[in-house]
Amino acid sequence: MSKTEKEYFDLSIAQLQALGAWAADCAERSLTLYENIEQDDARPRRAIEGIRAFVASGKRTNALRKASLEAFRASSETKDLAASAAAKAASLAAASAFTHPFKDLRQAMHILGPASYSALAVELRNTATGQAEIEWAVANADESVADLLKKMPEQSGKGKRIDQLLQMLDQGIREKFK
Question: Angle at Cα 91 formed by Cα 86 and Cα 95, nearest 5°?
Answer without folding.
Answer: 145
